[in-house]
Amino acid sequence: MINTTEQNQQQALDHLEDVWLFGYGSLIFKVDFPILEQRPASISGWSRRFWQASHDHRGTPEKPGRVVTLIEEPGNICQGMAYRVTPDTFAHLDHREKNGYLRFFAPLSFTDAPEHVPAEALVYVAGPDNAAFLGDAPLQDIAQQIASSHGPSGANADYLLQLDDALKTMGAIDTHVAELAAQVRALL
Ligand code: SIN
After folding, report:
1. Would residue 120 show up in a list of annotated catalytic residues for this protein?
2. Which of 13, 131, 180, 184 has the highest local Cβ count within 10 Å?
3. Is the Cβ atom of 65 under 6 angstroms away from ligand 1?
């Protein structure tokens, strides 16, 4: 299994008082870290896709599940949740996101603010060159894989359905997630 923890920890954050984190997957519905503030937000130029294998949370090395990563797509807006956290929170997050995700700063827009306030947030992205990257596949194959995978953090289907519910509660439209959720609900 890959472990991107060490690589992420080379990015020093200790000089900062607080940091915005942008969550677009499990970080939206599973907040197991202390936060100072939370606001709905979006990042531009990225699409959320179930293109990353999970060997450690929602699948196993023998039978990997599928979780989301961000794919560069100019013009697309990805909606999610921003959390203001203290830099020491990243020790836990780097471990949680260890299977191929690298964090970097990206421009962030808060969707609850009437005016545009420029900000930057750290975002974890598992790029196409990481060993657990699966890429695209027919939607019914992705749905099948998600419906049949389980890992130490629970059923892969719960990851997808909780994400779909959370996005709908926020009023965020993501057709990739919604279509997969509909297919997986029909399979279960
Ligand atoms: C995220 O939620 O921002 C990263 C991917 C994940 O943990 O599902």
Report:
1. no
2. 180
3. no
Work out the angle between the directed axes of helices 175-187 and 139-147 (0-180°, nearest 10). Answer: 50
Residue type, 47: S
87 DSSP 8-state letter: T
Give me the percent of the chain exceeding a pLDDT of 90.
94
Q: Ligand 1 test: best mutation among 33, 101, 159, most atoms within 8 Å of CB?
A: 101
Q: How far, in Å, is the centroid of ligand 1 from the Cα of 14?
A: 23
In angstroms, rounded to a whole number, what is the distance separating the alpha carbons of residues 131 and 175? 27
d(CA 82, CA 109): 9
Distance CA 137, CA 116 (A): 37
Tokens 């191929």 correspond to 100
Q: Is 24 in the pocket of ligand 1 (CB under 6 A)?
A: yes
* Closest atom of ligand 1 relative to the 22 alpha carbon: 3
Q: Map residue 120 onto helix, strand or coil.
A: strand
What confidence tens digit (pLDDT) does each residue in 49-97 have? 999 999 999 999 999 999 999 999 999 999 999 999 999 999 999 999 9
Is residue 112 very low, low, confident or very high in pLDDT (cuts 50, 70, 90)? confident
27 lines ligand 1 (CB under 6 A): yes
